[in-house]
Amino acid sequence: MIGASRAWAHARPKVMVPAADSTVESPKKISMTFSEGLVAQFSSLKLLDGKGTAVGHEKSKANPSDAKVLTLDVPGPLPAGPYTVHWVAAAVDGHRMEGEYKFTVR
Amino acid sequence: MDKLFLLRVLASAVYNLAYSGAWGALLAGWWLAYKAPWELRLIRLLRGLAVALVCALAAQSWLLTASLSGESGFAAVCGLMRQAVFETQPGHVWAAQFLLVVVIAATLFVLRGLTKRSSSLLVIAFALLAAFRAASGHAASYGNLTVQEAGQWVHLLSMAVWSGGVLVSGLLVMNEAVTLEVQEYGLKLSKGATIALAGVILSGIYNAYLGLGGSVAPLTRSQWGGTLIVKLILVLTALALGGWNRSRLRRGAWDEESEKGFIRSLRMEAVVMILILIASAWLANSPPAGEM
């Protein structure tokens, strides 16, 4: 029991694809893995271009085999430039967190 | 400060007080051997506390929906409640708690008095309610039926037995002290509180370790840590008052002055318990320090 080192936590981002502040080729998909299981119905990812306009109308999806993962399909190749991923993570402990991170398409 | 946060703390505090009070009423019934007029008084108290639990949980369904959705308007949240309750895991756990509390409340209104048999059934029901509660808070982030949830279940139960016994004894039973063998009752209370306290301390240390993420540094750097320090000071105050009363009870000589002193200390301890339960509600609704 004492060996546990993880804090009681609300869902926080652990792994982002593309990574935060990275410069990449246009991705086909945005994927985020959180520290806790998510309540899919109230969690989401949204992709915004450099002007803050939403890219596409796709809705993010929960991974049926891993409740900690959210993905968002990207419509077609993205023009070069900066992009922002806005995320909302509603955790199973009933608490909600949101935030954003940036990446650049070369 | 965020209005929704304060409402969540308020609903949790009402729940904590009512839940602890229910355990206190069940224990008082046992210690008073379900004699008249206590079997009726305690069932009335339990009915009132069950209604308070129903109200607190009803408010929490709205607050859970607001928390999950990020909405704060009354109508907007009401429109999402069905989805939050019926389609999400925290909603299902809430629904299980609500159904159980409604069944407990209905049963209490049917019962004519508190008996040993009805008390035993209520103990099982309230212990089950704590299990659902443990599955709906921070410990739920570890998954279902985990050691963390078991630790939280033990903490909720032992805290309710300790605080509830003191609350009901100090604020209700001792109002009728002239009709009681106060020293004999006090010794039963002291024994029960000591056993519960062992559970509170062990599970409390484990929960604090999880909440702090294995480090004491966040204690002084976060609201969660600050509230935990306040709770610890309050627990130590209650411990000191309880310890003082325990030594008073075990002294050979018992006179009117001893009795007055015992009741005075017990009432002070009951007030401290109310503050501890409010601090617990604050902690349950704050982001744990270990993630800050």
Describe the structure.
The complex is a heterodimer of chains A (106) and B (292). Chain A has 106 residues and is mainly β. Chain A has one domain (13-105): Immunoglobulin-like (Sandwich). Helices cover 0% and strands 46% of the residues of chain A. Chain A has no helices and eight strands. Chain A has strands at 13-17, 23-24, 29-34, 44-48, 61-63, 66-73, 81-90, 96-105. In chain A, the strands form two sheets. In chain A, strands 1-3-6-5 form a four-stranded antiparallel β-sheet, with no helix packed on it. A four-stranded mixed β-sheet of chain A has the order 2-8-7-4, with no helix packed on it. The radius of gyration of chain A is 14 Å and the shape is elongated. The termini of chain A are far apart. Residues 1-8 of chain A have low confidence and may be disordered. By secondary structure, chain B is mainly alpha-helical. Chain B contains nine helices and no strands. Chain B has helices at 3-31, 38-69, 74-87, 89-110, 116-134, 147-171, 182-212, 223-250, 256-284. The mean pLDDT of chain B is 90. The interface between A and B is medium-sized, with 26 and 34 residues.
